[in-house]
């Protein structure tokens, strides 16, 4: 179970990006985090695995407090937090198998990591997961030879190789075409059920959030203003979150531009 209590993130003396956020996720729930650019969506996910350092509050994963962990203990906990990125974050010159096995780096020795001598059971599990998502036949292909959807599937398998207790997906469909976006969302939904894995998805596409998640959390200016089922996510909630934007369903990155919401640690998204 992931439990977030009174989470605050502030950059310098500016107004907080996250303002006392409370959120609990358990079981195989698929939770969409929605909101306009600047709402705090990506910052929330990056605070959970401490790619961004929270200012204060509590983040507990199955009883372990994450916020105050030192580096050695943090590395151990991060093994249990899978992350799927908008930009895939693959090493292009490596094969699909090598990228997938990178998900085991937190579990093997430095010698094994440098020489890429992973245990046989890790390789077997990699093949099983790649077969599950339909990319096993690409095992020896370089990552830069794949399509966007195939690359994102590699990213999903790499995260699953960590044997995570929670999976975070930061705009996983933003760089993909509409059909492939639907396929990736269906994949995340089915994997959550199969593996009893809670999944948090930061997403702009409201239509996809309604179709493929169990719960929608709406943020505006760092404050949670909606938390409910897709069926409860009606026009009033949309207006409150997006400030009257006519079609928030369309507020998503397109493959042609790829510019909607790419953030660094200091972006307010």
UniProtKB/TrEMBL annotation:
Main location: membrane
GO molecular function per UniProt: ABC-type phosphonate transporter activity; ATP binding; ATP hydrolysis activity
Region (Disordered): 244-269
GO cellular component: plasma membrane
Record's signal peptide: none
UniProt cross-references to Pfam families, sorted A to Z: ABC_tran (PF00005)
Membrane association type: Peripheral membrane protein
Stored CDD domains: ABC_PhnC_transporter (cd03256)
Alphabetical keyword list: ATP-binding, Cell membrane, Membrane, Nucleotide-binding, Translocase, Transport
Keyword Flavoprotein tagged: no
InterPro entries given in the database record: AAA+_ATPase, ABC_transporter-like_ATP-bd, ABC_transporter-like_CS, ABC_transpr_PhnC, MetN_ABC_transporter-like, P-loop_NTPase
Composition skew (Basic and acidic residues), residue ranges: 259-269
Subcellular location: Cell inner membrane
Domain ABC transporter: start-end pairs: 2-246
Protein name: Phosphonate ABC transporter ATP-binding protein
Protein source organism: Halomonas icarae
């Amino acid at each position: 179970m992931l439990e977030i209590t009174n989470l605050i993130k502030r950059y310098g003396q500016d107004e907080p990006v996250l303002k006392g956020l409370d959120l609990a996720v358990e079981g195989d729930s698929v939770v969409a985090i929605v909101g306009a650019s600047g709402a705090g969506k990506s910052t929330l996910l990056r605070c959970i695995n401490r790619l961004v350092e929270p200012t204060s509050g509590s983040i507990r994963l199955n009883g372990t407090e994450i916020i105050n962990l030192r580096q050695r203990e943090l590395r151990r906990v991060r093994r249990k937090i899978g992350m799927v990125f908008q930009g895939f974050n693959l090493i292009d010159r490596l094969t699909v198998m090598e990228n997938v096995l990178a998900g085991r780096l937190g579990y093997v020795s430095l010698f094994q990591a440098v020489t890429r001598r992973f245990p046989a059971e890790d390789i077997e599990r990699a093949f099983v997961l790649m077969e599950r998502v339909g990319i096993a036949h690409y095992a020896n292909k370089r990552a830069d030879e794949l399509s966007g959807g195939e690359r994102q599937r590699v990213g999903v398998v790499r995260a699953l190789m960590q044997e995570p207790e929670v999976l975070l997906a930061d705009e996983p469909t933003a760089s993909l075409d509409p059909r492939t976006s639907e396929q990736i969302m269906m994949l995340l939904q089915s994997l959550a059920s199969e593996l009893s894995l809670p999944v948090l998805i930061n997403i702009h596409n409201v239509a996809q959030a309604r179709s493929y998640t169990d719960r929608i959390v709406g943020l505006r200016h760092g404050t949670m203003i909606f938390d409910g089922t897709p069926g409860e996510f009606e026009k009033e909630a949309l207006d409150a979150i997006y400030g009257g934007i006519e079609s928030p369903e369309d507020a998503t990155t397109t493959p042609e531009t790829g510019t909607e919401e790419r953030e660094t640690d200091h972006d307010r998204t």
